[in-house]
Amino acid sequence: MSFLVHRRIFLASAAAALAAPAIVVSGRSANAAATTLTLGHGAAPGNPRTVAAAKFAELVKQKTEGRIQINVAGAETLGSDSAMLTSLRTGALDFTANSQGATSAIVPELNALGLPFLFENTEKAMAVLNGPVGAELNKRFEAVGVVPLDWWDNGIRHLTNSKRKVISPAELAGMKIRTPADPMTIDIFKALGAGTEQIAFGELYIALQQGVVDGQENPLANIESSKLHEVNKFISLTAHKWESTPFLMSKMVQARLGKDFEAVRAAAKEAGELQRKLSNEKAAEVLGKFKQNSAVEVAEVDHAAFVKATASVADAWKKKPFGDFVAQVEAAAKG
Fold first, then answer.
1. What are the tens digits of pLDDT across the range 125-174?
2. What span, in angstroms and rounded, lies between the C-alpha atoms of 192 and 115?
3. Domains and CATH numbers, the chain
4. Are 282 and 48 contacting, i.e. CB atoms less than 8 angstroms apart?
5. Burial level of 90, CB count in 10 A (0-12/13-18/19+)?
6. For residues 141 and 119, what is the distance between their CA atoms, to the nearest angstrom?
């Protein structure tokens, strides 16, 4: 299909761009012994994740007095989120600000954070992640060679489509919705009566434009920064789930950092505070823009109907091998 051809052309040109010195966010130190590490992510320019990644690079240079410098490669120039995770675990990539859906492939317990309508906002999610739930997830990550440095925000997710205004789950019947390769999100949309298709985020605009799928779901900031509203005029404020952006480091890098590890972790957390702040502000700003934009149609949904339609999802996930953890997350969120 033609959008896949565009994808290959994009990646080829991106690889060439990455090789150029301009991709380095922080200038090289005069100290030739400085260690340069690479951070990859999939967000577009202007996205809070992109801004925070640049801030992380700046903070690392500052906190390590130039001993560690960070190369930042965004917009999937190093491949999809799944590909970057593979690179992270093999040591080919040092850091990634990744998606919860893709990351759940290596730590399935992470899916529990995306139970439908579990968190109303980022603050409630972070309160849970800063407790026993987060400590347990850290152990699961370290067991697969990955070190979580912080939990960045991927926001509350909403639905867009090119066909019609969606207010109730019944209006999703017959639609094909792009989701990440995330079992929880797939289950949510199956429960809502929609078909799903898994397409890399970097290919999503063209897939929507060409009608490969009818719609997609993402936080408002991602919808705007990737211009998805240009090809999906109907925006439904479903708020069906919250997702994290796990900020991860390869375990292989930890030994190389030595005494600078704590400085790098502190930089990740400080950049994370900025990212979460920007994410919340951006969501409110983008919603205002969309409501004033005559080219798109924003709709409030029948919240109770969506909650009822997806109630079976949590029950099904509690029957999985890590069902006790799913129940723990749900109880912590309600506590």
1. 999 999 999 999 999 999 999 999 999 999 999 999 999 999 999 999 99
2. 14
3. 2-334 (3.40.190.170)
4. yes
5. exposed
6. 22
Closest C-alpha among 117, 113, 81, 115 to residue 96: 81
Q: Which two tokens stand for residue 289?
A: 């823009």
Joined tokens for residue 47: 């996205």
Angle, CA of 56, 57 and 60, to the nearest 5°: 80
Reported confidence tier of residue 283, pLDDT bands at 50, 70, 90 = very high
Question: Distance between CA atoms of 41 and 63, rounded to whole angstroms?
Answer: 22
Q: Distance between alpha carbon 177 and the CA centroid of its chain, in Å?
A: 17
Measure the CA–CA gap between 119 and 116, rounded to whole angstroms.
Answer: 8
Name 236's bridge partners: 159, 299
State the angle between helix axes of 122-129 and 261-292 in degrees (0 to 180), rounded to the nearest 10. Answer: 160
Tokens of 277: 């702040």
β-bridge pairing 68-73 and 35-41? parallel
User: What DSSP line would sit under 24-42, residue for residue?
Assistant: BSSPPPS-TT-EEEEEEE-
Whether residue 179 contacts residue 189, with contact meaning beta carbons closer than 8 Å, is answered with: yes
Neighbouring-strand partners of residue 250 = 146
Measured CA to CA, the distance from residue 160 to residue 297 in angstroms comes to 10
Span 97-119, mean pLDDT?
Answer: 97
**215-219 and 176-179 beta bridge pairing:** parallel
- Rounded distance, CA 219 to CA 81, Å? 17
Query: What is the rounded distance in angstroms from the CA atom of residue 311 to the CA atom of residue 57?
Result: 42
Amino acid in the structure at residue 284: A
Instruction: For tokens 């078909």, name the residue.
Output: 195
3-class DSSP assignment, residue 124: helix
| Total residue count of the chain as it appears in this document | 335
Residue with tokens 């929507």: 208
Q: What is the pTM of this model?
A: 0.87
pLDDT in tens, 15-51: 444 444 333 444 444 445 799 999 999 999 999 999 9
Cα–Cα–Cα angle for 137, 142, 144, nearest 5°? 105
CB 193 within 8 A of CB 330: no
